[in-house]
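Each record in this resource describes a single protein on a pair of labelled lines. An example record follows, reproduced without changes.
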Amino acid sequence: MKHETWQAWLAAGALVVSSGASAGTLEDVQNRGHVICGVDGGLPGFSAPDDAGKIRGIDADVCYAVAAAVLGDRESVKFVPLTAKERFTALSSGEIDVLSRNTTHTLTRDASLGLNFTYYNFIDGQAFMAKKDLGVNSAKELDGARVCVQSGTTTEINLADYFRSNKMDFELVAYETSVQTREGFEGGACDVLTSDKSQLAAIRSELADPSSAQVLPETISKEPLGPVVRQGDDAWFNTVKWTLWAMMNAEELGVSSANADQMRSSEDPSVLRLLGLEGDSCQLISDKLSKDCFYQAVKQVGNYGEIYEANVGENTPLGLTRAGSPNDLWSRGGLIYAPPVR
């Protein structure tokens, strides 16, 4: 399974050379009138439909923000649900403009697929979720366990490495999607489910009885997750990357969706540059962007703290506390650190 996975990824990278993917994604998006965004589509907190069928989540909000920055309308997005195996091929071939699907930045993906990782909208790590009646309290007690996993992810590699380094055996039970993996775990096809901790929280929240499962304490990997674009298109790469960074800078500067208009009268030059009232920050990226592209993203979607709390924070079904986590701002001890807009 792992061998097939790497073959698929490398084949996806090779498509970059032959596909003739557009070198002007920003222009293509503006001419088309909407951003085509690849997402999971079934992972609560990251990208999943709400009761009205609208895609919600921290990955989806990146897409809404890019649409607001590029087109002035956050709703100008077409979402394409993709499995883990499909995602890189879809981006390389030009089927989508940006991949915002809880995707880990690794050396192999960065160096061999013809893709650029922008920055991180969630910093995660892999763990295990076990049924409480299994009677284990540590991943070190999982020798011989049947492990449910979503195929085509870094999760499989981390799983094999962890069991090998701890001289334990396991039986792999692989599925194509997050939903199928949850159903396999809940239906008894495996003893434990392994994925990123945020995904475990999302999957656990959707179990018929969430209290029947517990996340074991060990974190076995680093999983920096963020949006991805094709290589060879710097204007689009910078547009997506700086839209995300602008949302992080907005939180640092106290600019939110609620006060963005009021903050336009600020005397802080950093705020004025962010909102497009001084300098030409957006147009340094591309003269096809409006001067207020970052203002549009923050006004219409929110700053980083807003989208975190709305989608995965303590008052959501995922209940992921941000304070003290890597996803807090650097100024509060976290790892969220965006270069300045100047």
